[in-house]
Every structure is written in structure tokens, then in C-alpha cells.
Amino acid sequence: MKGIIMPTPEIAIIDPNTLSSLGLSDLLEELIPGAIIRTFPSFAAFMDDTPDMYAHYFISSQVYLKHTAFFLARRPKTIVLATGEAGPQLAGVLTLNICQPEKELVRNIVQLHEHGHRHGHPGKLPATGHELTAREIEVLALVVKGFINKEIADRLNISLTTVISHRKNITEKIGIKSVSGLTIYAVMHGYVEADQI
Question: Could you give the domains of the chain?
């Protein structure tokens, strides 16, 4: 709809593991361009902020277990960062296994996003202003499915130089360089299904 400005989604990551927080923050920035993502090293630091303003809480399992009452009241917005299979204490809560290969982690983040926003995200992905060509979309889809440049060239019956050129154009147009970022972009724009990656 024209004239309506959608609110910018705000996401909180509450995790004492700095490396985990930064990595998740980078992935979420690629998933939801324009989102405001704040990281907090502790529940106390999070509570010193404005905790109810966030659309989502990504929270370490240790913090969740210590402050379950707060997050149970906000269950639809809570995603617990687990290290493996979720135990019985996390039953009924959305979890994200952070100890899995990057491709599966990206797929699970996309699936959580789709689960939580079946009717659209308030911060729907903006148009880049530089739309991809049909051939660039074909190349992008093959990149996110794990094909290397030579395999893409063979599948599309084009030269290796042309594949490299298309990949460069894709990166320049959408501003994403990592394969995980490209994967999220491709799924969110409907170029591939989450279960195809």
C-alpha cells in the first residue's frame, strides 16, 4: 500500500557469547535488511533497555532457563539459541541449533522467519532498485544450491567467464557477497524454496 510506512523490525540478541551474537547479527542483517539488531551480553543489560519494543528475541538457552517467566509471556517472539537437540526444558519454544553447518543454519533461520511471518513481515524486503535479470536469477539459484562456477557454466551452457560476470553483477546489484547472504536473499525473494538449499 502506498503512503503506509511499515515499522522497522527491532530484534534483540541476548547471549553472553560475543562471537555467537555477532555472527547471528550479521546473518539477520542480511535476512532482514533495515532491521535494527541489538546485542546484549546479559539479561540485566537487556532489561536496562526497553525490552518490550522488540519484534523478536534470540536468546541463549542459559539465559532463557534463568528467566523463563519473562520469555514464556512473550513465547511467539522468543527463539532460544540451543547447542544441539532441545531438551525437555525447551519444549514448546522455538529453538535454533547454532551448532550446525552454515547451510543448515541459514535454512533453519529462513524457516523460522517463514513460520513466524506467514502473512508477511512488517519490514518486508525493499526493492533494491536494480532488479536481477532472468539469467542472473538462474545463476543465483544454482549458487545457493551449492554449485561451483564450472558446474553452473556447464548446466547453463555458458562460459565460465560469463558465470563470473553474472556473479559480480548480482553482488553489485544486491550488495551481498556471502553465499549465506545470497541464500537468504534468494529464499526471501522466492527464487528458491527453503527446502531446495
Answer: 10-116 (3.40.50.2300), 134-196 (1.10.10.10)
Distance in angstroms (rounded) separating the CA atoms of residues 185 and 50:
30
| Structural contact between residues 162 and 135, judged by C-beta atoms closer than 8 angstroms | no
- Using CA atoms, how far apart are residues 35 and 22, in angstroms rounded to an integer? 15
CA distance 59 to 37: 13
186: left (phi > 0), else alpha (psi -120 to 50), else beta? alpha
| Neighbour-count burial of 26, counting CB atoms closer than 10 A to its CB (0-12 exposed, 13-18 middle, 19+ buried) | middle
Alpha carbons 185 and 183: distance in angstroms, whole number: 5
Q: Which pLDDT band holds residue 55 (cuts at 50, 70, 90)?
A: confident
Q: How confident is the model at residue 159 (pLDDT cuts 50, 70, 90)?
A: very high
Mean pLDDT score, 19-39: 84
Measured CA to CA, the distance from residue 156 to residue 63 in angstroms comes to 49
Q: How far apart are CA 156 and CA 44, in angstroms?
A: 54
And the C-alpha cell for 175?
A: 550488495
Phi, psi for 50 (deg, rounded to 5): -110, 85
Judge if pTM exceeds 0.85: no
C-alpha cell at 6: 511499515
